[in-house]
Amino acid sequence: MNKPRHLLANNKKWAAAMKKANPTFFAELAKLQQPEYLWIGCADSRVPANEIVGLLPGEMFVHRNIANVVVHTDLNCLSVLQFAVDALKIKHIIVCGHYGCGGVKAAMENNDHGLLEAWLANIKDVQLLHRAELEETLTMGTRFDRLCEFNVIEQVTNVCRTNIVQQAWHRGQQLAVHGWIYEIGDGILQDLDVTINSLEQLPAYFRLT
């Protein structure tokens, strides 16, 4: 198999274009990382975090996995979250899903997806939690879209349940967690209006003292 050398060539063209637009861009970028945003999104290659919100390298810290899930045993995600909150002092955490998510679709099926099933179980839990509303929906397509939205909403809560985020709020740190969803078909983001920016917005049994 040949090496993807065209990607290296593309990189040189990109770097040259960035330098032409701003000769000091990379020198400034190398000094310090100071993003205001943490993006927790899906690993889907059609949802490039920086590009769809018009941000440059260095302006957004990013964690991606299948179906933008936040699991309390996932040390990878939690490590990213802690570094973003405690070290980078980011101000906004954006949990972003997308319609047509393959991970959500797989969770809706009864097929055996092998090792992936352990991960999909987190989305199946979301499906079970919202079963009543999902079963009232008439079409499979609408159920699919709604579960993509519910998955984002539940992951926002999961972010806020971590001691990382709650300790930041106890310290008085400005931090808001938002739930968004992306439509690949037209490139538009939608705010699901589930922003949480304080302990008081969480149910009492989720709050850590």
Walk me through this protein's architecture:
There is one protein chain. This protein starts with a helix and ends in an 18-residue tail after the last strand. The protein is of the alpha/beta class and 209 residues long. The chain contains nine helices and five strands. Strand 4 and strand 5 form a beta hairpin. The mean pLDDT is 95. It has a five-stranded mixed β-sheet. Helix 5 packs across helix 6 (116-129).
N to C succession of SSEs: HHEHEHEHHHHHEE
> Judging from the principal axes of the Cα atoms, what is the shape?
globular
Number of helical elements = 9
- Main pleated-sheet profile: 5 strands, mixed
Number of strands: 5
- Cα-to-Cα separation, first versus last residue: 56 Å
Question: Beta-strand percentage?
Answer: 5-15%
Radius of gyration: 19 Å
The largest sheet has its strands arranged as 2-1-3-4-5
Give the fraction of residues assigned to helices. 40-55%
User: Which structural class matches the secondary elements?
Assistant: alpha/beta
User: Can you give the mean pLDDT?
Assistant: 95
Low-confidence parts lasting 5 or more residues at pLDDT below 50?
none
Features:
single chain, 209 residues, alpha/beta, 9 helices, globular
SSE diagram, text form:
Blueprint: H1 5-21, H2 25-31, E1 37-42, H3 49-52, E2 60-65, H4 75-87, E3 92-98, H5 102-108, H6 116-129, H7 131-136, H8 140-161, H9 163-170, E4 176-183, E5 188-191
Helix pairs in contact: 5-6
